[in-house]
Specification:
The chain has a single domain, classed as 2,3-Dihydroxybiphenyl 1,2-Dioxygenase, domain 1 (Roll), CATH 3.10.180. Helices cover 16% and strands 32% of the residues. The protein contains 5 helices and 16 strands. This is Glyoxalase family protein. InterPro entries: Extradiol_RC_dioxygenase, Glyas_Bleomycin-R_OHBP_Dase, Glyas_Fos-R_dOase_dom, VOC_core.
C-alpha cells in the first residue's frame, strides 16, 4: 500500500465503575481527562478519554465504563498489554508510587534495552510503564497530580497476542509498519521513525485460549492518519486488498474506520484532526459532558442515566466553578 501510519493514535478498553476508572487514570497515573462524552452507539455509558494536556494523538487511552460489567479474559485475538512511556530515571519512582497506591507491581525487567514495569488497572487491564533508552521528547501533562519529571509521555506500544504471526505481519506491512526485532516468540514492528508511540509487539501464543473482550480488556487499537483524505485513500486500498472495512465514521474529535487484523484484534485508523478543543477550551477539557449534535435532543435523558464524576481540581487549571 502507498500509505504508512506514523504511530499509535489511541487504545480503547472496557472498564467497570466509571469513578474508579477516573480515580486510577487521573490520580494514580496522573493523566488528564480530556473529553467526557458517551459511547455514540450506546449513549447510556460514558466514553472517557485520558491523555496529555490537549489529548494529542499518541497520548490517549480511552474507556467505555459499564458499572457491573463482567470481567474479560486475556488471550489470543486481542491486545493484551498497553505500555505507556516514562522517563528512564523514573521507573524506580513509579514502582514506589504504585505500591503506595496499593497497586501490585512486578519486578522491573529489561528487554531490548528498555526497562519495563508491569501491573494492572483496577479492572485487570494489562499495563506497563516503559523507559526507552533514547528518551521520549513528548511533554507530559504538567499540571497533573504526578510530578512532571516523572509524568507519562504517552503511549509506548501495544502487545497483540496471536496464534500465528504470519498473516498479522503481512497486514502490518500494508499499514506501513516495519519488522524491527524478534525475541523468542515476540516480534516487534515499528511505524515511521520508530520510538515510543510507534511500536507494536506481536506475541505468538498458540496454546493460549481465545480472549474475551469485556471489563479489563482492550476493545480496539487505533493508528494515526494525518487527515481525512489520507484516511479515505487508505480505506479504498484496504478494501481493494480484501479487508472488510467500515464506512468512515464521525467521532467528533477524529474520523474513524475499523477492521480486524488476521489474528483477531480490532484495529482503527483515526485522523489527527480536528482534536479535542473542537468544542471546549483547552483549560476546560473533560469538565462538561459533550454530546454529538444527533444526541443533543436527548441530553436530559442521557444526563440522568450517567453517574456523576468527581474530578480532581488539577484536571482543569484556571477554570472557574
Amino acid at each position: 500500500m502507498s500509505i504508512a501510519t506514523s504511530g499509535l493514535h489511541h487504545v480503547t478498553a472496557i472498564a467497570g465503575d466509571p469513578q474508579r476508572n477516573a480515580d486510577f487514570y487521573l490520580r494514580t497515573l496522573g493523566l488528564r481527562l480530556v473529553k467526557t462524552t458517551v459511547n455514540f452507539d450506546d449513549p447510556g455509558t460514558y466514553h472517557l478519554y485520558y491523555g496529555d494536556e490537549a489529548g494529542r494523538p499518541g497520548s490517549l487511552m480511552t474507556f467505555f465504563p459499564w458499572k457491573g460489567a463482567p470481567s474479560g479474559r486475556h488471550g489470543t485475538g486481542q491486545a493484551t498489554t498497553t505500555a505507556l512511556s516514562v522517563p528512564e530515571a523514573s521507573i524506580g519512582w513509579w514502582k514506589q508510587h504504585l505500591a503506595a497506591q496499593g497497586v501490585e507491581v512486578g519486578q522491573v525487567h529489561n528487554r531490548d534495552g528498555e526497562d519495563a514495569l508491569t501491573f494492572q488497572d483496577p479492572d485487570g487491564l494489562g499495563l506497563a510503564l516503559v523507559a526507552h533508552p533514547q528518551g521520549d521528547p513528548r511533554a507530559p501533562w504538567d499540571d497533573g497530580i504526578v510530578p512532571a519529571e516523572h509524568g507519562i509521555r504517552g503511549l509506548h506500544s501495544v502487545t497483540l497476542s496471536v496464534t500465528d504471526e504470519t498473516a498479522t505481519a503481512a497486514m502490518f506491512d500494508g499499514l506501513g509498519l516495519s519488522f524491527a526485532a524478534q525475541d523468542g516468540n515476540r516480534f516487534r514492528f515499528t511505524a515511521g521513525e520508530g520510538g515510543p508511540g510507534a511500536f507494536v509487539d506481536v506475541l505468538v501464543t498458540p496454546d493460549v485460549p481465545q480472549g474475551l473482550v469485556a471489563a479489563g480488556a482492550v476493545h480496539h487499537v487505533a493508528w494515526r492518519a494525518p487527515d481525512e483524505a489520507t484516511q479515505a485513500t487508505w480505506r479504498e486500498e484496504l478494501l481493494g486488498s480484501g479487508v472488510d472495512v467500515t464506512s468512515i465514521l464521525d467521532r467528533q474529535y477524529f474520523r474513524s474506520i475499523y477492521f480486524r487484523e488476521p489474528g483477531g484484534t480490532l484495529l482503527e485508523i483515526a485522523t489527527d484532526e480536528p482534536g479535542f478543543t473542537a468544542d471546549e477550551p483547552l483549560l476546560e477539557l473533560g469538565r462538561a459532558l459533550k454530546l454529538p449534535p444527533w444526541l443533543e435532543p436527548k441530553r436530559d435523558e442521557i444526563d440522568r442515566m450517567l453517574p456523576k464524576l468527581n474530578l480532581p481540581a488539577e484536571n482543569n487549571p484556571g477554570a472557574t466553578a
